[in-house]
Amino acid sequence: MSTTPGRSAAAPAPVTVRVPAKVNVQLAVGGLRPDGFHDLANVFLAVDLYDEVTAFPAEPGEGPSVTCLGPDADRVPLDRTNLAVRAADALALRHGRSPDVRLRIRKEIPVAGGMAGGSADAAGALLACDRLWGTRTPREELLAICAELGSDVPFSLVGGAALGRGRGELLTPLDVGGSFHWVFAVAEGGLSTPAVYRECDRLREERGPGAGADAVPAPEASPVLLAALRCGDAKLLAANLSNDLQPAAVSLLPALDDTLAVGTRAGALAALVSGSGPTCAFLAEDAASATEVARVLRAEGVCRAARTATGPAPGATVLSPAQ
Ligand code: ATP
Questions:
Q1: Looking at ligand 1, which residue's alpha carbon is closest to its atom 28?
Q2: What pTM value is reported for the model?
Q3: 107 an active-site residue?
Q4: What are the protein's GO molecular function terms (predicted)?
């Protein structure tokens, strides 16, 4: 048997995992819970805009480290707070081993853009380290670690489409009867997810007595929206997209209204803020319409970048070494 020159026979090969971004086709936000979270009915759709996380072997006792490549790389923390590093730490703790790994993130998902980029990296790092270290963690345990890392992390692992209850981490997979065409308008800066939830609570309080967070109805997934996903009906989906965080995101960044209007005028079936924003998502009738909407968004200068993508996309997937 031959070995790669320069690599010790015992060193495992680096593991690369691809992880999708998400858009929330419905985000229903309940009242503020005593623990500071909100109950959600969160309908996630994964789209084929991906980060790649590679786990390289490290020396025993070296601990975890991370590097990041891509247009937004300078906005990603490279210390122990990086969600990919936190995932490596959590998996190592679970197995009582040292979290020795060199992580590399190739970042395509906008940072702080409401598309779960950090969550994607956490799910990717978890899967990559599990494979690199040979820890063979059962799927249910991986999902439990994901839920501890963040509300959106379990969905990044699973992908496809799913209804998230609780904080969004209690997932029920959903059937999708076709592929949907999207355009994502990436904003110049980011929005902090906690700040957007605080603004949502503030706006609800402002509406006056009886309309505050206490009076918010329990969030429910829309049956018509779920049917639209099941049938692959883009027009029906467009008519039922909703995001309770949109008023809060627009209140913090009023220019988002212009972006939404430009994409709608350019022929999108519907427009909404993606999750906590500030990325704006446009549902198009087909690939040609999506290309046109992206062209107009770029030409009008209402976003930093406009990307087309389709969904559903698969969850975290090991690219190499081959399965
Ligand atoms: P969500 O849609 O789940 O609310 P988001 O897409 O709006 O999240 P992220 O891209 O996950 O936001 O980034 C939120 C913050 O998390 C960033 O501002 C950054 O400081 C921090 N962060 C930690 N690790 C990462 C990572 N690997 N990639 C991006 N941001 C990270």
A1: 118
A2: 0.93
A3: no
A4: 4-(cytidine 5'-diphospho)-2-C-methyl-D-erythritol kinase activity
